[in-house]
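ARCHIVE CARD
SHELF: 3
SLOT: left
DATA:
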Amino acid sequence: MTRIVGLDFGTTNSALAVRGGDSQPRLASFDSAATFRSILFFDADEHGPAARARPAAGAAAIAHYLDSGGNGRLLLSLKSFLADRNFSATDIFGRRFTLEELISLILVPIRQTAERQFGDLGRRAVVGRPVRFSGADNADDEERALRRMRTALAIAGWEEVIFQYEPVAAAYHYGAGVDTEQILLVGDFGGGTSDFSLMRIRPRAGMPPRYDILASEGVAAAGDAFDGRIVHHLVAPELGLGSCYRTVYGRVLPMPALVYSRLERWHQLSMLKAPATMTRLRELHAQALEPDKIAAFIRIVQEDLAYALFAAVERTKLALSANDHAEFEFTAPPLALRQHTAREKFEHWIAAERRQISECIDRLLSAAAAAPKQVDRVFLTGGSSMVPAIRKIFTDRFDPSIVRAGDEFTSVAKGLALYQE
């Protein structure tokens, strides 16, 4: 049997697993970690041949970003752009990079690192995809996302690609240990999307289980959106959201919401650095009634402090998953934030996303003509599966004793490597 490569390219983290023969999948290790951060950083002072910007990816991108003091271009959540018809390329220090090229700059070091551990990975891979791509409004958008992903994978050396829904892959991982027939609901919570599949698992003696997909659904409400809510309520007001500016005609107007909506979306934050946007921010600073707040906003954008902001938000979200209260701390002089917040507030902030996820589960069950009591097991994976308010969506709808979670960041990659023709 040929080796199977399972690749989970994620909005926030990526993972790769390899299976040979009848063996269990083995995860690639990235500096002793099981996942690779889906991040790129272009250092403004480092250039390769022909003075072209030379990027770093993953943990190296974070290290370069911190060492340079943010002097460069940090790109996060590139997967969220795949379906976007309005974004195809961006200019980075004088060179135009397509989205496919940017994603390949993450995929290539993932492949190279894995090949140092497993040898040549070949031209074929089983790759995860969300049920609904973030930002996809129709079939054309979905096809655009898959086409772009295929191109990026080909640049990285994978010319033969089999796409599989991410929650189905997680079901393969879970089903490897099942010894009785059951109906399984899998929820995979990523950075950009939350995806679900309802499946019947039929164990077979001496053979891999049979999987019958009853229904799959997805929604663009996930970890990045939760982070954005924290930014909106704890950070954006200190950067001018809700304040006003005075026009040259003397009118007092609220600060435009668009720039703050981009601040709340990690994949759009680096786009605030575009010349036209920076010009507009400087105009607003000159007209602001609270100019210090706009100055702090400009500094965050200009110096690419997105990662530090992201890290502070992530720490707060994790703390609220474990405790009823948490301290949010973020320092970027002249801005220094330290705010006490509560899990109850956070759950109120993400009420719209919780409702979207809940309605998605209802659609899933309806599509399969299944009642909650017919579900034998619920398996949740992905970072946001640890958020108590998200877990409650399932424990309210299903018997809490059947709801399980595990391998939050690697179950999809391992399941992809278990793919059977």
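SLOT: right
DATA:
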Amino acid sequence: MPNYQSGEVLLLALPFADVTTSKLRPVLVLLDTGDEDIVVARVTSQISRTVCDVEIVEY
């Protein structure tokens, strides 16, 4: 498995809510744990929907 750097953008197959299908979507690498796991955040143009979503604004 390749090693990823924090800040890299990847395309991963993310499942839809029904978990029967998925779609390639961009994600931001937050942490590569050094084994088979990585921690990512989804990247979307949609308005925030949960308290965990963070809006990035340009100043």
